[in-house]
Amino acid sequence: MIKVFTNPAIKSWSGIIKRPVTDTASFEKSVRKILKKVEKKGDQALHKYSKDFDRIKIKTFRAGKEEINGAAGQLTDELKTAILQAKENIFRFHKRQKEANKKMETMPGVTCWRRPVAIEKVGFYIPGGSAPLFSTVLMLAIPASIAGCKEIILCTPPAENGSIHPAILYTAQLCGIEKIYKVGGAQAISAMAYGTETIPKVQKIFGPGNQYVTTAKQLVQYQGIAIDMPAGPSEILVIADNSAVPAFVAADLVSQAEHGPDSQVILITISSSIAKEVKKEIKKQVNKLPRKKIALATLSNSKIIILKSIEEAIKLSNFYAPEHLILACEQAEEISKLVTAAGSVFLGNYSPESAGDYASGTNHTLPTNGYAAMYSGVSLDSFVKKITFQQLTKEGLQKISNTIITMASAEGLDAHKNAVSIRLIN
């Protein structure tokens, strides 16, 4: 099960927290082949891959109005109420991210400003199968709608009977998405990147997926299609002091472990007794899970690390740059000021990572695999370009002209200098 390390030397940290390694080269060739085939043959290739990979024959890729409208009737009122509550919180949080267009004079007669402009066409990949991530529809569609994206395309793998999970359809309809397609895997990414007879081409692709989907997203970047961020298997790191509740900590670690066998969970604590209790709780809780086999595989890649101080724990956490970070500590808010690398941070014993996954309001589409050191999670900014503007009066140009001319001359760019000087004599 989970391995325990006590006061490891700093030089050994990188080895201890090494993430499970995936050999992408082994399937990159297959992904490239899928991308090229869909680019050249469009829907014909999609039909072939649906038959080969999903073992189904799809007549029409786009979900029909009747199927979409019927989804609500297949869900319990309790689930629909929960989705509506989550939608409201996510909307509130992302709406506050909208910037006002503020103009400023950098000097008299020189006015500058910046205006966010929505990316017009965006594509969402929503995993289906054993864990249909309808919550991801909320996380992507809500900021896209607030930003003002004109066209949203959603692709999700169908079940063996050719249907889409009703919770995905209901949530998509709730968010105003009408173009929903029954396509999964790398072929879905290819369809959105290049366009087919049925599925429109988009400008940016969002959403999590398996290794084939992730590789496809990274490959289409080279051809001018933007993606949300580099992403890999899900992960969580918990820092716990003596105020932590072992059962709560174990529950957070186990909840992340059920994502998939290539995920990773880490506990860093300053208390050996907390470490022992958490380990006991993990064993107790994992045995009750329907996805026990998956969780156990994840836990074999996972670690409990006992260190001497919270400061040292934060240092290791920043080095690891986790997707999710829980501070199960007495002074959690104060400690959080030391965090420099994490996708999303959860403070205190009553802030489970599941809250961010579903309904607190923050976005759960986050950088993994150490990318939290330099990437942010999805936000309203992910769906806009920010264009800068400037307007100079004749007097403003006169005031700044000497600076521009001097700098252009020093760089040997005489045409730049002349573009200013010609205006001063007219």
Care to count the β-strands? 14
- Average of the residue pLDDT scores: 95
Distance between the termini: 79 Å
Summarize the main sheet.
6 strands, parallel
Strand content: 15-25%
* Computed structural class: alpha/beta
What spatial order of strands do you see in the largest sheet? 1-11-10-9-12-13
**Approximate helicity band:** 40-55%
Apparent shape: globular
Low-confidence stretches at least 5 residues in length (pLDDT < 50)? none
Q: What is the number of helices?
A: 17
Radius of gyration, Cα only, in angstroms?
A: 25 Å
Describe what this molecule looks like in 3D.
This protein is of the alpha/beta class and 426 residues long. 43% of the residues lie in helices and 17% in strands. It has 17 helices and 14 strands. The protein has helices spanning 13-16, 25-41, 43-53, 65-69, 77-95, 134-147, 166-174, 185-194, 211-220, 246-257, 272-286, 292-299, 310-320, 332-336, 353-358, 394-410, 414-424, and strands at residues 3-6, 104-107, 110-118, 121-125, 151-156, 179-182, 204-206, 226-227, 235-240, 264-269, 303-306, 324-328, 344-347, 384-392. The strands form three sheets. Strands 1-11-10-9-12-13 form a six-stranded parallel sheet, sandwiched between helices. Helix 2 crosses helix 9, helix 10 (246-257) packs across helix 12 (292-299) and helix 16 runs antiparallel to helix 17 (414-424). The chain is globular. The mean pLDDT is 95.
